Amino acid sequence: MNRIAMAALAALTAAAGLGPAQAGSEDVVVENAWARATIGTARPGAAYLTLRNAGDATLTLTGVAASAAARAEIHRSVTDEKGVSSMMPAGEIAVGPGTSVALEPGGLHVMLMGLRSPLDEGDGFELTLTFSDGGEVAVPVAVLGIAARGPGG
Amino acid sequence: MKMARTIAWSLVGLAVLAFGASWLWTDRRGGGPGDPAFAAAFELTDHSGMIRTQEDFAGRWMLVFFGFANCPDVCPTTLAEVAAVMDGLDEDAGRVQPLFISIDPERDTPTALAAFVPAFGADIVGLTGTPEQIARTADGFHIYYEKVEEAAAPGGYTMGHSSQLFLFGPEAGYVRSWPYGTLAEEILADLKEHLAS
Ligand SMILES: [Cu+2]
């Protein structure tokens, strides 16, 4: 099976609500939140971060909103065995107890659509992550240069 | 939950379609990277409005990759990696021309590319053209691209596309490619070896 199909199946499993009891959002640790600068507001932006589940039950990220954009979604970029890359909504993201999920270039990302103002290097904005227990976590995001390759620039 | 399931199943459907399409595409084709005659060939407009062909870059190595300006993740990442590779070449940078070819001719006018590609530095040249020119170029490079419906995206679509980075030699002949996700440091080391040979 190719990676697109696998990703879709993973999304299906997550959406079907399989897995152990849901943990509280108070157990989530968000690290290395950053976004690439954009030129203007016409084109979408992307933000990245690492979600760590410090609790002892699975934690599920169900939604995201951004102060900088009219609409934010978790997307997944996939590259198949022929070298074709595309992206799609990732559905809910389950983070097992004691594990981390990285949103990083070329994989999971927060897609920022309808930017309210350009993301300028040195600025920041806030992401609000919603979890399956209804809890919300506010995450400050640093805007790095357009050619940034990771949270370190 | 019911809606989530519907979305999940439509993702599965999409995956099956995408898989079928990419399978059909590669099976139909000959030539490409395995063919000793494979070379860079294009006639496109650069981000300053000039008509460019591979002959304009004769005598220089070409780093060629495909993408679109509305791409928030994979394309800026590749542009950033290529810029890092070019920085790492130091005085040899002048021997290598990085070329970003748009596979989204509808949205990527030369003006749109002019506001996007140069921001990454490293003298990367953005190339675009008419839909016919882009289709011909993609055919010549044996790469794949498709529109993917995405209601929330500008214009209501996003693109899927081949994301490897190609290296062509000073006579435009194909040398090698690196898959998306190859670290700039690794590409730089390989490229330096080629430049030294
Ligand atoms: Cu996206």
From TrEMBL, chain A:
Keyword flag DNA damage: no
InterPro entries: LpqE-like, Lxx211020-like, PCuAC_sf
Transmembrane segments: none
Gene3D superfamilies according to UniProt: PCu(A)C copper chaperone
Taxonomic superkingdom: Bacteria
SUPFAM superfamilies: DR1885-like metal-binding protein
Swiss-Prot/TrEMBL keywords: Signal
Protein's UniProt name: Copper chaperone PCu(A)C
Organism listed in the record: Jannaschia rubra
From TrEMBL, chain B:
Keywords recorded for this protein, A-Z: Copper, Disulfide bond, Metal-binding
Record-linked InterPro entries: SCO1/SenC (IPR003782), Thioredoxin-like_sf (IPR036249), Thioredoxin_domain (IPR013766)
Domain of life where this protein originates: Bacteria
Disulfide bonds: 71-75
Domain Thioredoxin: 33-196
Molecular function GO labels: metal ion binding
Sequence positions that bind Cu cation: 71, 75, 161
Keyword Glycosyltransferase among UniProt keywords: no
Keyword Transferase: no
PANTHER family named among the record's database cross-references: ELECTRON TRANSPORT PROTIN SCO1/SENC FAMILY MEMBER, LINALOOL DEHYDRATASE_ISOMERASE DOMAIN-CONTAINING PROTEIN
Similarity remark: Belongs to the SCO1/2 family.
Protein name: SCO1/SenC
Organism: Jannaschia rubra
